[in-house]
Structure formats: C-alpha cells, structure tokens
C-alpha cells in the first residue's frame, strides 16, 4: 500500500498528496504507539468504509468532508444537509467553521501539512459557493469586512497569497484579490474604491519585501485608515514592526485570526 500511494503521489494523481500524508501519519502514529521503529504491515484504514460513512449524520459527513478535504463529495453532502432542513447559515457557523478551525489547529500542531490545509480550505470553499445564494439572503443586513490582498510589485509568487485569500473568504470576509506584481498605487486605489478595512500584502523575496514599506508610506500619504498586514517567506514580526505594519502573519490560519483581532471580531 505504501508503494501504491507513493506511486500515485509521484504520478501527480488527483488528491494523491493528501492520501499519502494521511497514510504516513497513520503509520507513524501506530509505530509510536507500539514503540516500533522498523516498517511493518500497517493494517490501517485511511478512509472509512462506505457503510460507516453513510451511518454518519449529514452534519458529521459535512464536517468530515472539510477535515479530509473531500472536494469531490462535499457538494452532494451539502445538498443533502439542506434537504434535511438545515439552514445554510447554521451549516456555516456550526459545521464548516468549526471543521476548518480544527484543520487550523492540526496544522499548528504539525499533524496536518500544507496540501491538507489547502484541500480542506478548497472543500469548504466548494460548499460555501454552493450555498452562496442562501447565505447572501441570510446576510442581507450584515455588512462583512472587506480585505484587499495582493503580492507586491516585482514579486510574481502567489501561492501563499492565494491560500490566505481562500481562508479569509471561507470565514465570510469580502476579499478583493488583486493578484501578483501589483503597484502600490493600484493597491491603495482599490482599497479606497472598496472601502477596505484591511490591506494584506505578500512578498516572497528579499528584493521585493521593501515594496511593502512603500505601500505603507503611500497609504499614509493618501490618508488610508485600513489596517495593513504583511506576510511571506522572508517577512518577520521585526520587519513588520520596522515598516509600520499593523500586523504580521506567518501562515494563512494565523492571517484569519490576525484580521479578526484587528477588526475586533470575536472568535
């Protein structure tokens, strides 16, 4: 089974990354519990049998879909939960958000890795997009905070930025994603246009991280009140303090917590 899962991973088969990580995590946990160091037959089930999954409640199945990054099956499970009379807002608040919170905790503890985090976030996004018309009806009197996010000028890396944008959307924020290699003038212009409460800046390289300073200085010149948060591989809390950013986040899960703290939104 290890060879089969590894082959799928090397051949870049769909969702093979998450399956392989789950297998290796399970193998490691079993060895640690038994005090073993040498490889043995695992006898480990990575996915629950179909009958066992069908025995779960609709809420539990939806929760599990997010936890396991089940992007293929989450739409059907979302529809089934709605057919059972569950309100879209209730599913979001009581199932999807707690599930993604657990994913974030597992990521913080080193039990989940980036492919799992991305798969879970995308599964949740799929469910939310399916329920979007119903959620919009439920939130007609609720103004959600707007976040403008961009990779700074000169930097063409956007994987981390995309993950942050996805996570913020999953938590209900209105996200304006400007893409990569974005000049400071465009960032501030869009922040003004959309009355953004938060501007999120990303940079991967030491040669482009200085652009963050220029964006912050330009924002002050333009009298922008939005909170500015920064992140990326080369960014640190010390650098964020040096350039006058309102906050620094080392990963997507922390970016959501930071944004909530800055805006005074209860966890």
List its traits.
267 residues, alpha/beta, Methyltransferase, Methionine Synthase (B12-binding Domains), Chain A, domain 1, Rossmann fold, 3 domains, globular
What would you say this structure looks like, in words?
It is a single chain. With 267 residues, the protein is of the alpha/beta class. It has three domains: 46 residues, no CATH class; 92 residues, Orthogonal Bundle (Methyltransferase, Methionine Synthase (B12-binding Domains), Chain A, domain 1), CATH 1.10.1240.10; 118 residues, 3-Layer(aba) Sandwich (Rossmann fold), CATH 3.40.50.280. Helix content is 57%, strand content 8%. Strands 2-1-3-4-5 form a five-stranded parallel β-sheet, sandwiched between helices. α6 runs antiparallel to α7. It is globular and about 60 Å long. The two termini are 41 Å apart.
Number of alpha- plus pi-helical segments: 12
Please tell me the CATH architecture of the largest domain by its name: 3-Layer(aba) Sandwich
Q: Would you identify the regions where 5 or more consecutive residues have pLDDT less than 50?
A: 38-46
Q: Return the CATH topology of the largest domain.
A: Rossmann fold
> What summary fits the major beta sheet?
5 strands, parallel
Helix coverage percent:
55-70%
Q: For the CA atoms, what is the radius of gyration?
A: 21 Å
CATH homology superfamily name of the largest domain: Cobalamin-binding domain
Structural class: alpha/beta
- Return the average pLDDT rounded to an integer: 86
Give me the side-by-side strand order of the main sheet. 2-1-3-4-5
| Form type | globular
Please give the alpha-carbon distance between the first and last residues: 41 Å
Strand content: 5-15%
The level 1 CATH classification of the largest domain is Alpha Beta
How would you spell out the order of helices and strands? Answer: HHHHHHHEHEHEHEHEH
Tally of DSSP β-strands: 5
Number of domains: 3
């Amino acid at each position: 089974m290890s060879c089969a899962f590894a082959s799928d991973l090397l051949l870049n088969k769909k969702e093979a990354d998450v399956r392989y990580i789950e297998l290796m995590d399970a193998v490691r946990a079993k060895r640690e519990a038994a005090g073993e160091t040498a490889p043995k037959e695992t006898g480990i089930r990575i996915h629950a049998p179909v009958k066992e999954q069908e025995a779960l409640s609709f809420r539990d199945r939806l929760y599990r879909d997010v936890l396991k990054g089940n992007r293929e099956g989450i739409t059907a499970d979302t529809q089934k939960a709605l057919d059972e009379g569950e309100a879209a807002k209730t599913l979001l608040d009581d199932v999807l958000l707690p599930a993604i919170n657990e994913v974030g905790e597992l990521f913080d503890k080193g039990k989940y890795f980036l492919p799992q985090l991305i798969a879970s976030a995308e599964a949740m996004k799929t469910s939310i997009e399916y329920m979007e018309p119903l959620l919009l009806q439920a939130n007609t009197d609720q103004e959600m905070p707007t976040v403008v996010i961009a990779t700074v000028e000169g930097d063409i890396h956007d994987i981390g930025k995309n993950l942050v944008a996805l996570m913020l959307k999953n938590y209900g924020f209105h996200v304006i994603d400007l893409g990569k290699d974005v000049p400071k003038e465009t960032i501030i212009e869009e922040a003004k246009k959309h009355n953004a409460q938060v501007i999120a800046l990303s940079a991967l390289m030491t040669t482009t991280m200085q652009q963050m300073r220029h964006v912050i200085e330009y924002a002050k010149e333009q009298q922008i009140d939005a909170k500015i948060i920064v992140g990326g591989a080369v960014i640190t809390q010390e650098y964020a303090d040096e350039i006058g950013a309102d906050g620094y986040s080392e990963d997507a899960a922390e970016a959501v917590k930071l944004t909530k703290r800055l805006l005074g939104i209860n966890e």
